[in-house]
Protein 1
Amino acid sequence: MLLSRYHRILDMNLRKFIRTCFDKQALKEALHSIDLTVSGTIDELIDRLRFEAHWSLYDFLDFMNDEELKEVCRWYDITVGGRKEDRMKRIYEFVTGDWKDHDWKMEQMAQKSGEGRAPYWAKSYEVFIAYRRDTGLDFARHLKSGLEREHISAFLDIIDIPKEFKGKQTWIRTRNESIKKSKKFLLIATNGIETSRELKKEIQIARDNNKTFLVYRHYTLGSQITISLEKEKMNLGDFQQVSFDSKEDLLRNVLAALR
């Protein structure tokens, strides 16, 4: 009974903090950064981040820049000095009354070798599977399963990143390092890939690291798809493409190319 009361207090304090420190536009930007729907009331946006993306207080603090954290410290009359993570820790302690119940230690383990380094569970793969979640997930799941039956290692974010890091910076670092460590970048081109913010980030990382691209395009799409990346515009028409009409067809085509 005490535990449930404790968590109700934490929930109330977290909601109060979010509503104080995040306006509706900031919440929309947070949702947009992880490709979630940005419509709804402030409470609906908060619930979407907390229960769909599983954001904890740590994630809300980590999303804020250092100047915003300093402003929060001044607002709550908390010591401002030190590093960003010191400010985050002080705010966390103020809001929750505790620090030990959080997964901060796990987050720090992933960063202890330096910013941008691979977390301890990141490893090398034959292919990194890139896809748009709402139109390509079924194809991607079937492909990963089929490749691994043939002993071909394939990275798929929704399976290979621990679920407790969904929507967190650790999730992003793991994905980014897995692109760099994979031999090939396999892009499943389905409807809307050119508008997916996260997919464009993945493609840019693959381009920056000179990865070999394998492009598989659903037969309903044309070959000339232009994707506006951070540093360039990329036309899939410049790549050799293989079309597919089903998840079984996609797997057959990929196996033929990798064997």
Protein 2
Amino acid sequence: MKKDVKQTANRKPLDYRNDSEHPQREIADMGSTQNNLSLICWDLPEEASHLVAPWISDIFPDGYEVADGSTLETPQPGRVVFRFYVSEDEALEKLERLRKTAAKMADEGILKNKGKIRRRTIADTNWWEVVKEGFPTLKIGSFVFYPPWEAAAIEAQTGSDESSSTQLHYIELEPGQAFGTGHHATTRLCLQTMERTAGELKAKGSQEPRTIMDLGCGSGILGLAATFLWDAKITATDTDDNSIEAARTNIERNNLSSRFKLVKPHECKTSSFDLVLANIRFKILADLASGFNAWVKPGGIAILSGVLIDEKDKLLETWSKEAPSFKLKYYLEEEEPVSTGSSDEPNTWVSLVMQRAKK
């Protein structure tokens, strides 16, 4: 069977190296030269990541990257690293402003602590090549996620390879300002539960979802994957403006704008869907439990991820009170390896499939 390339075939070429509206594209423009640059890293608890964006946009107007466990500045489990590439000339000034911002957020109780801020020089190197090393093409189940600089190679491969009996779905993802490159265990688990759910619905002859919400869409990875599994309209939503724009970029790169609606959360308070995808943290899933009563239609499904196995029972207890019409169908789990030499215990993440009663 030929690979499914409907999202890569006939795509209008996008010149990744000549678009200055995104910081990584600016990196690409510098890729052929040797440059001394500074990399400023801010290491925070993962649950604090959504609080940071409004505070740093003035300091780093060209954007930033978020390490989700796979990139060069790999965080420890439960941590997230914001990465800012700046010129050596402005590094000290940016560093001081960031430290003051972190202190202010801690003083005002927005952050429990300032986190760890550090700076290092990337000296005399082709740093665009360094960045690219952190985002390889990745296969998860039937999905193949690849960065823009691999587009030509991927299209050449899908145009010539007739040998595979497995239908593969190719999705172009631009890594950068939003969570969701497929490298983190929570994203992988969500994709796996989506594929399993699609298979079960098809096997049972059940009605497939026609409306889907990607809650906390980040890069848009889950919504993009959903377009391969179901003939559905996707509503993608996030509280972070950078995530909305990152998702928009990825949707456009894959020629899927007609399948998506991008909104802020308050715009879909009264909407209901056949399927809701939510790869967000435990506390938010617990706090929003009652909201799923409105978001998920009777008989519909919610796929929840971003939950540690030690948090699973507490989340189910909260849902039994706040969303009692939902029952756990099953869950998948994955142990996240720790960094070499680390004394930390590995985290085990879970993704839960919750189904709402039909009546």
